[in-house]
């Protein structure tokens, strides 16, 4: 998992997702893998896939850090600047 975390940090998200897909295929109940795959998708800008992976991680482990990541991503999506609409 450390290698995958480094790939995500380095911006090599396609490679990280490929490795995570292979890992999840063999370890379906790994909440950490879903959380990391959510991070990789988020970094790519694929919000829907990120949220789906975070939700799966949360279903597998309610104490997963995916809970925080999910809530933060929802907060970002809900944010808007009302003042910008009147310009």
TrEMBL record:
PROSITE patterns: TPR, TPR_REGION. SMART domains: TPR (SM00028). Keywords: TPR repeat. InterPro entries: TPR-like_helical_dom_sf, TPR_rpt. TPR repeats lie at residues 31-64. This is Tetratricopeptide repeat protein. It comes from Parabacteroides hominis. The lineage of its organism: Bacteria, Pseudomonadati, Bacteroidota, Bacteroidia, Bacteroidales.
